[in-house]
Design brief:
By secondary structure, the protein is α+β, with helices and mostly antiparallel strands. Strands 9, 10, 11, 12, 13 and 14 form a six-stranded mixed β-sheet that branches. A hairpin with a 5-residue loop joins strand 9 and strand 10. Helix 5 packs across helix 6. The chain is globular, with a radius of gyration of 21 Å. The protein starts with 28 loop residues before the first helix and ends with a helix.
Length: 301
């Protein structure tokens, strides 16, 4: 399998961010970082973080963060400065300033900030939402600088959960048309995207691609090509992107449950939609779906 060029990765999936995972077991790491006024803190509230502008997050100092926060060590920036997470519960007051949700602003952020935002949101949700052991129900104790929990009842160790999911851009046999679907959960009926679904137990990625596309659109696909991956904390997914081809175009039909409509698009129609025109809405630039569609439109798939 060929590893894609990092320049083709989604905006929220850069490869250069240093998580400094080897430091997580260092005694007193969080306390020392919180005591250092130079430490940079990413605060997340729901799925939002503070913004310093259109392309950058606003990092706070530790003494600016409310007491209700759950803390974790995210790594270090290019200058070696500690990056911490402070995850606020959803019922905590929203601090002053401009805030943005990952879905809305992730594609516009510089790569470093986008990566920190994805990690912080993913880890923060786990810290806030999973305080008890799923095996016995007892309370857990957070350790490894926020990256692990140990049950105080049965002693089991738990880690943040990541669910693999495939996401697929399907083209016609001549690669001149792109098949997209409209999800039943979307308010705008003219919104279309690539096909996606979770990998089932014991299933390979390739089998998941074939199954999900056939279930949702009715077509069978082949010639699968891996296109890249993206952490996507809605709620805790790892999106694994593929391009695929079908020679059974006439079989395309919506499943009527998850997907309410499917449609073949020409390159001109997709180009108009990417430019903000046309009669359809496409996924935002923060998503790997947008990258898959753009790759096809530019003749890279």
């Amino acid at each position: 399998m060929t590893v894609p060029d990092s320049s083709q990765a989604p905006a929220t999936a850069p490869l250069e961010w240093d998580r400094a995972a080897e430091e997580r077991t260092a005694e007193g790491l969080l306390d020392a970082a919180r005591a250092d006024a130079g430490t940079r803190v990413l605060v997340v509230h729901g799925d939002r973080a503070p913004l310093a502008g259109d392309t950058a997050l606003r990092f706070l100092s530790p003494n600016e963060v409310a007491d209700q926060a759950q803390w974790a060590f995210l790594g270090r920036d290019a200058q070696g400065v500690a990056l911490l997470l402070a995850a606020l519960p959803v019922d905590a007051p929203l601090p002053d300033g401009r805030w943005g949700a990952l879905r809305a602003v992730g594609g516009d952020l510089v790569s470093h900030d986008a990566a920190v935002f994805v990690a912080g949101l993913s880890l923060g949700r786990w810290l806030l939402d999973a305080p008890f052991c799923p095996a016995c129900g007892a309370a857990t104790r957070v350790h490894a600088a926020g990256w692990a929990r140990t049950c105080q009842g049965c002693g089991r160790e738990h880690f943040p959960r990541t669910d693999p999911a495939v996401i697929v851009a399907v083209t016609s046999a001549d690669r001149q048309r792109l098949l997209l679907g409209s999800n039943a959960l979307w308010a705008q009926q003219n919104r279309y995207s690539t096909f996606a679904g979770f990998v089932e137990a014991g299933e390979s990625l390739e089998a998941a691609v074939v199954r999900e596309v056939q279930e949702e659109s009715g077509v069978r696909v082949a010639q699968l090509r891996y296109a890249g991956s993206q952490g996507w904390p809605y709620p805790r997914s790892l999106m694994l992107g593929f391009h695929a081809v079908t020679d059974d175009e006439q079989a395309a039909r919506a499943d009527g449950e998850e997907i309410v409509a499917v449609r073949w698009f020409t390159r001109d129609e997709i180009g108009a939609a990417l430019a903000g025109g046309g009669d359809v809405l496409l996924p935002g630039t923060a998503s790997i779906a947008h990258r898959l569609i753009t790759q096809w439109h530019e003749g890279l798939a």
